[in-house]
User: Fold this.
Amino acid sequence: MSILTPENPQFNRIMITGVAGFIGFHLAKRFLEQGRKVVGIDSVNNYYDPALKQARLDQLLPHPSFCFERLDMADRKAMEELFAKHKVDAVVNLAAQPGVRYSLLNPYSYVDSNIVGFINILEGCRHNEVKHLVFASSSSVYGSNTKVPFSIHDNVDHPVSLYAASKKANELMAHSYCHLYGMRATGLRFFTVYGPWGRPDMAYFLFTKAILENRPIDVFNHGKMRRDFTYIDDIVEGVSRIIDHLPEPSPVWNSDLPDPAMSYCCYRIYNIGNNRREELLRFIEVIEECTGRKAVKNYLPMQNGDVPETYANIDDLERDIGFKPQTSIEVGIKQFVDWYRSYYKV
Assistant:
């Protein structure tokens, strides 16, 4: 299949769930810049500061091609009415209850949002002739895997958090709908996304805030962590290309040796990561350089549900859509710190 470019999009009316969230906001801006119409939905809950979510929305609402609906994806009737009202070509599902550590405290929120909400998305796509569903999975699905870089062709049946299990469930649910109803779906395993307008519960945000307020930072696993940090602009570029790249049945899929990354139906999985490992202590060092202040580190043991390392193999992504994320943490963190100082007037 030929690669469509964002300058020549196949789909012009797109629904984005979680549009007031970090990735959803940036993706909506990109689609609107490309001349597409965006129907955005979000519950604007209080998992983190709703004022930040509203500030993101305030940038989108004036656009004539943007329509916003405030609702909870777990509300079945509201979701049925939403899909009936807005006939869209494609859906990007980014709404979810995020966070590994929070899943230890409030597991039911993950079932409501990530499981019930997702089945409502699948049913909406099924009954309204949506041509492509792109949905957010996570690097967390690799769980206790230790072979790196993490490959979409590896088994991921050993999650270490409920959040990860819910994301793996999304992948399985989407595949079953592709098999049963001829839907087309693409799952994206995001690797530690960061950047301006990011989530306040993420480590880089917490580190920056604490350092600028002269407070200690909590460094888990005594700093012996490595992450594949992926800058938001790279994520958005990847998703904006994938939305127009319809998955096809794999001609080499073998039911005797099934490859989890592909299928006999119109379903695919991709990693989106920077394809490099960064030491957590180096990441903190870059934040120190960008803020001009030294961090006071409080070293702690590994938390339940966390993993010591993430690292994405993105060969399939690069081959199929002709794109490879490559923003360095030195560039990305500077952009984030500059935004943080401006937004919070530090």
About this structure: Confidence is low (pLDDT under 50) at residues 1-6.
